[in-house]
Specification:
8 helices; extended; mainly alpha
């Protein structure tokens, strides 16, 4: 199944089936699973070739740990720009070791669509203003 909302819905259905089957035997585990279901399936919206790498948080946590380690050495940062420079340098350094993150044209398109959904949500349509004067030119001429 292709990544996206349909895959997320299919996995959500499987989570519901699992919860129904095991709710009596493992109530605490099922409660935890149901409360975190959105976070557990968020990686399914991304390109299929990325699932293996982003389905767990070690990938991200290691980068955060490296950033914390470097900030400890510095002690304090003089401003926002220096903080952003440090984070950028750490991400640049870490990205060299990210193996298995192939970028195919369909994957690039899917990531662009996800970015568009996050940063440029569709604007709601405006409802037309209710006209106060409901008389039409035809009705004005007919009254006289």
């Amino acid at each position: 199944m292709a990544p996206g909302p349909k895959l997320v819905a299919a996995v959500q259905d499987r989570i519901d089936a699992f919860a129904t089957q095991y709710a009596r035997v493992f109530p605490a585990a099922v409660k935890c699973l149901l409360s975190d279901r959105q976070q557990l399936t968020s990686y399914l919206r991304f390109p299929l070739e990325h699932h293996r790498r982003i389905r767990h948080s070690n990938f991200i946590e290691r980068t955060f740990g490296e950033t914390r380690r470097r900030v400890k050495v510095i002690g304090w940062l003089p401003g926002e720009a220096s903080c952003l420079n440090l984070v950028w340098a750490v991400l640049d350094w870490a990205s060299r070791g990210w193996r298995g993150m192939a970028m195919t044209p369909p994957g690039t398109r899917l990531l662009a669509d996800l970015r568009h959904q996050l940063f440029d949500p569709p604007t709601p349509l405006r409802q037309p203003a209710i006209e106060r004067n409901t008389e039409t030119p035809e009705s004005v001429g007919a009254v006289a």
